[in-house]
Design a protein that fits this description.
mainly alpha
Length: 71
Amino acid sequence: MLAVGSAINLFTGFVALWLVSQDQPIAWALAVHFAPVPYNAFLLRSLWRTPGKPAWSMAGAAVWFAGMLVV
């Protein structure tokens, strides 16, 4: 979750910044930036549904999800 999700978010974040720097419409940059949100939600839900997980992993996953909305 952390490695793959973060890599996808960083890539799409840089692409969104590149679009803004190339004077593309801001709507395109926002669409690219928020495109991985459904996948991140899938990762979060998958982790929460995993049996036998430690309690701290749920809190960490929620913090990661919130952080990836910003980054």
